[in-house]
Write a structure and sequence with these properties.
The chain contains eleven helices and 25 strands. It has about 575 residues and is α/β, with parallel strands linked by helices. The protein has one domain. Strands 15-16-9-10-11-6-18-19-20 form a nine-stranded mixed sheet, sandwiched between helices. A hairpin with a 5-residue loop joins strand 22 and strand 23. The longest helix has 22 residues. Bound molecules: 2-acetamido-2-deoxy-beta-D-glucopyranose (7 copies). The site of one 2-acetamido-2-deoxy-beta-D-glucopyranose has 3 residues, from loops.
C-alpha cells in the first residue's frame, strides 16, 4: 500500500542564452545540435495590464484592501522553509550540490517567501502536500521556532506568531529519526495577518462513498466527520503573547501497533482558554489547495473529471470553502511507462479544463483555480535534463499551460529521458535520473567515447550509483531526494508564492464582494479577470522565470489583484 518511499536523493536548472550542446543520438545514428536557452515566456504582458502589484511598506495612502500579500527575501534574511519539515528523508540533505550555474540566481530559485493573510487556508493531500503545507507554515509563522528532537519524541514549536498544532501524526517503526513525523492533520494560527493555515492528509480525492467512522490515516483512504470536526472546532488563541512550546504527547489509537506510534500536540482546548483576551474558533475555511494524490495512492485512471468535481463539492460541504485550488500532477517515480506519462498529461489537461469551465453560479464553490505545479516541475526536469547532458531539445514554451491540445513533439520527449532511472537495489522505486541527479551517475554502457573524445550517451541503459565514488556524483541535487518528494527548501518559496498570488486574484481588492452581488453577466466578466490573474501567477511562480528584482527589495510587499474586477 505504501506508494511513496522515503529514501533520499536531489538537482537544479536554468539555461542561459544559446548554449549549443552537441549530442549524439544512438537511435538516429547522427549528431543533433540541441540549442537551449532561457525561455522568458509569460513575461510579455504590458506592465499596465499586470495583475501583480507592489506596495512600499510606508505607502499607507494607497493601501488596497489586501487579504493576502507576500514578500520575497534573500535566504540570508529569511532562511529557507525547513523549520516545520517533519520527515528528514524528504528534505535536501545537509551536504549537497550547488544549484546548476544557470539557475543559481537570487531571482530564480534562491529567494524565500513570507506571507501575510487573514484568510483560512487548508492544504489537502498526501505526503507531497504535507511537505508544501509545512513549507507554507514557514512563510506565515516567521517568528516561530521549532524544536525537533526525534529521539526523545520531542517535537515542539513556540513563538510570538501563533501556535502550530499537530492534531494527529504517526511515527513508523523503531527508529523515529529515520521515519520522521508523518502528519495526518495540523493547524497553524493565528498566522501573520491573523489567518489560519492547516494540512489534512487525505490519500484519495474525497467523495461521499469514502466516508468512514475512523480513518487509519497512515495508509487508509477516506475521510471522517471526526477529523473534519477536529479542524473546525479548534480554537486559536489571539492574545499576542509568546506561545509556549508544547511537546507532542502519545495519542491513544485503536489502531496502534508496534510499527506505528501515534502522536498529537497538547491541544489548546485542554488548557484554560477562557481567560485569554481573544480566541477564534476555526469554524470554516476560505480556500482549499488540493493535489490529487497520484500517480501513487490513486491510479491515474481513478482521477476522473467526475471524481474531481465531486471532491470540490464535498469539500464545500465539509469546510464551507468558497475557493478550491487544484494542484496539477508532477512527474514522479510512479510514472513507469510512456503511457503513464501521457495519461498524466491528460489528467492535468482535464484538471485545467474543469477549472476553466467551473460553473460558478450554481456550485457552492465559486472559484476553482489551477496551481500549475506540473508545468513548474517540468521546467525543472527539462532544465536539469539538459544540465546532465540529455538530448532534450523541445522548447518549454510548448508544454501545455491551458487545456488546449498537447503538442505531440513535447509529449513524446518526456519519456525519452525522464524514464531513465538510477538503479537502487534496496529501493522499491528507482528514481528518475533527471529528477534526482546533479551530475550524470555512473552507468553501465552509459557512456561511449567517439574517436575525438566526445562522450555519447544512450538513454536506454540503466545506471547504477558508484558507491565507491564521491556521492555528489549523482545524489543530492537541490530538487528531489527520492524521485517522489521535492526539496521544498528550493521549490517551496515559489510554491507558497504562487498560492498567495492565486488567492489574491480572488480575495484582494473588491473582487470577491463584487462577485457576490454581481449579475450573471458581470460574474462571467469577473471570472475572466480572475482567470487572467491566475495565468499570470502560474507564469511567474510556477515556472523558472526570474521574479522581478524589485520584489526582492526590503519593505516591498507584493500582491495580486484581478484587473477591472472592482468596477
Ligand atoms: C543563495 O544565496 C546566498 C546568498 O544570499 C548564498 O550564500 C547561497 O549559497 C545561495 N544558495 C544557493 C543554493 O545557491
Ligand atoms: C529544544 O530541545 C532541547 C533538547 O531537548 C532543549 O535543551 C532546548 O531548550 C529546547 N529549545 C526550545 C526552544 O524549546
Ligand atoms: C489513553 O486511554 C487510557 C484508557 O482509556 C487512559 O487511561 C489514558 O489516560 C489515555 N491517554 C491519553 C494520552 O489520552
Ligand atoms: C489563564 O489561566 C491559567 C490557569 O489559571 C493560567 O495558568 C494562565 O497563565 C492564564 N493565562 C493568562 C493569559 O492569564
Ligand atoms: C480559567 O480562567 C478563568 C478566567 O481567568 C477563571 O475564572 C477560571 O477559574 C479558570 N479555569 C480553570 C479550570 O483554571
Ligand atoms: C567530436 O566530433 C563531433 C562529430 O563530428 C563534433 O560535433 C564534436 O564537436 C567533436 N568534439 C570535439 C571536442 O572536437
Ligand atoms: C567508481 O568510482 C571510483 C572512484 O572514483 C573509480 O575508481 C571506479 O572506477 C568507479 N567505477 C565505475 C564502474 O565507474
Amino acid at each position: 500500500m505504501t506508494m511513496l518511499h522515503t529514501r533520499a536523493l536531489s538537482i537544479v536548472l536554468f539555461l542561459v542564452s544559446f548554449v549549443a550542446i552537441v549530442f549524439y543520438s544512438s537511435h538516429e545514428k547522427s549528431l543533433t545540435i540541441c540549442t537551449t536557452h532561457v525561455e522568458h515566456v509569460h513575461r510579455d504582458r504590458e506592465p499596465s495590464t499586470s495583475s501583480i502589484h507592489t506596495i512600499d511598506e510606508h505607502d499607507t495612502v494607497n493601501h488596497p484592501q489586501n487579504r493576502i500579500s507576500f514578500r520575497l527575501h534573500s535566504p540570508d534574511v529569511i532562511s529557507p522553509p525547513f523549520q516545520f519539515l517533519s520527515v528528514p528523508g524528504y528534505t535536501c540533505p545537509p551536504s549537497i550540490a550547488p544549484l546548476p550555474p544557470a539557475v543559481d540566481h537570487p531571482t530564480i530559485l534562491n529567494f524565500t517567501t513570507t506571507i501575510e493573510t487573514d484568510l483560512k487556508v487548508l492544504f489537502v493531500g498526501d505526503s507531497i502536500m504535507q511537505q508544501f503545507a509545512q513549507s507554507f507554515y514557514s512563510s506565515v509563522l516567521i517568528h516561530a521556532s521549532a524544536n525537533t528532537s526525534f529521539g526523545s519524541k520531542q517535537y515542539v514549536w513556540g513563538g510570538k506568531d501563533g501556535r502550530h498544532v499537530i492534531l494527529r501524526a504517526f511515527i513508523n517503526g523503531a527508529i523515529p529519526e529515520l521515519s520522521g513525523l508523518h502528519v495526518c492533520s495540523s493547524l497553524s494560527g493565528p498566522v501573520q495577518g491573523g489567518g489560519i493555515v492547516g494540512y489534512y492528509r487525505l490519500l484519495d480525492l474525497p467523495n461521499r462513498e469514502g466516508r468512514r467512522q475512523y480513518v487509519y490515516c497512515k495508509n487508509e483512504k477516506g475521510w471522517s466527520w471526526g477529523d473534519v470536526r477536529e479542524f473546525l472546532d479548534f480554537t486559536v488563541e489571539e492574545d499576542g503573547e509568546v506561545v509556549p512550546a508544547k511537546p507532542l504527547v502519545r495519542a491513544n489509537s485503536t489502531h496502534d501497533s508496534p510499527q506505528t506510534t501515534w502522536y498529537k500536540s497538547q491541544l489548546t482546548s485542554e488548557g484554560n482558554t477562557t481567560n485569554r483576551s481573544k480566541t477564534q474558533t476555526v469554524g470554516s475555511f476560505n480556500a482549499i489547495v488540493i493535489r490529487p494524490p497520484g500517480p501513487g495512492w490513486m491510479k491515474l485512471h481513478e482521477i476522473t473529471r467526475e471524481r474531481i468535481i465531486e471532491s470540490i463539492q464535498l469539500l464545500h460541504e465539509l469546510f464551507a470553502v468558497e475557493t478550491v485550488i487544484l494542484t496539477t500532477l508532477a512527474f514522479n517515480n510512479n510514472v513507469v511507462t510512456s503511457r503513464d506519462w501521457k495519461d498524466m498529461l491528460a489528467v492535468n489537461q482535464m484538471i485545467r479544463e474543469v477549472a476553466a469551465h467551473w460553473d460558478n453560479v450554481v456550485s457552492g464553490v465559486k472559484f476553482v483555480l489551477v496551481q500549475d505545479f506540473a508545468a513548474f516541475t517540468n521546467e525543472i526536469l527539462w532544465m536539469n535534463g539538459r544540465h546532465l547532458g540529455y538530448n532534450v531539445c523541445s522548447s518549454l514554451t510548448m508544454q501545455p499551460r491551458t487545456y488546449d491540445t498537447i503538442p505531440a513533439e513535447w509529449a513524446n520527449e518526456g519519456p525519452m529521458f525522464l524514464l531513465h532511472r538510477i538503479a537502487m537495489r534496496e529501493w522499491k522505486f528507482n528514481p528518475s535520473i533527471p529528477m534526482v541527479c546533479n551530475t550524470p551517475p555512473v552507468c553501465v554502457s552509459f557512456a561511449t567515447t567517439l574517436p575525438n573524445g566526445t562522450t555519447v550517451k544512450d538513454i536506454n541503459e540503466l545506471c547504477v550509483m558508484n558507491i565507491t565514488a564521491d556521492k555528489s556524483q549523482c545524489f543530492f541535487n537541490r530538487f528531489s531526494r527520492d524521485g517522489m518528494h521535492w526539496c521544498v527548501e528550493t521549490v517551496g518559496p515559489r510554491f507558497s508564492g504562487s498560492v498567495a498570488c492565486l488567492l489574491g486574484c480572488v480575495y484582494n481588492g473588491a473582487t470577491y464582494e463584487k462577485y457576490e452581488s454581481a449579475s450573471y453577466t458581470d460574474k462571467t466578466k469577473i471570472m475572466e479577470g480572475v482567470k487572467e490573474c491566475e495565468e499570470e501567477c502560474n507564469g511567474r511562480f510556477m515556472s523558472l522565470v526570474p521574479v522581478d528584482e524589485g520584489w526582492l527589495k526590503n519593505n516591498i510587499a507584493v500582491y495580486s489583484k484581478c484587473n477591472h474586477c472592482d468596477v
